[in-house]
Design goal:
The chain is mostly helical and 174 residues long. Helix content is 89%, strand content 0%. The longest helix is centred in the middle third of the chain and has 32 residues, at 84-115.
Amino acid sequence: MEKFLKKSNWTDIIVSFLFFLFGVLALSRPELVMSMISIILGVICIIAGILKGIDYFADGKTNNYLLAISIAMIIVGVIIMFCANIIISIFRILIAIWIIYSGVINLQTTIIWKDYKSRIWLLTFLLAIATMAAGIYILANTGAVIQMIGITVIIYSIINIIQDIIFIKVLEDN
């Protein structure tokens, strides 16, 4: 179990570092981030639509469902590429859910560490609460611009990295 927890915490640190880099990029170049996200998601949808269209023609034009999915995905891909404001709303919600989820998981781990009578459980408890608060802020603030998301993601990633390092230290001490 300890080996699994250590590996899991190092993975969380890497993910948090990637979130940190995204936050810095979102803070310094928000227009670039929005256009990149819109283009990437749009292209993914268009490619998936084209592949469904190929499946339709390869299947002998018998499955009209594939054709409908193909056309819908291509249309959605084009819309995504040209509607960055919609994308930021969806992206904001997904990031908020991820941060809240991470805070809940950290809170659960903190409660486990309390049972081990660790001296630093209170600090990790407060950090987990702060993580969840950051996620709730992003979720509740519909007017949040990409820069605020960037700042919150940076704060989240730093808090999460600190928490994971603390958990690794506690594992090594026990």
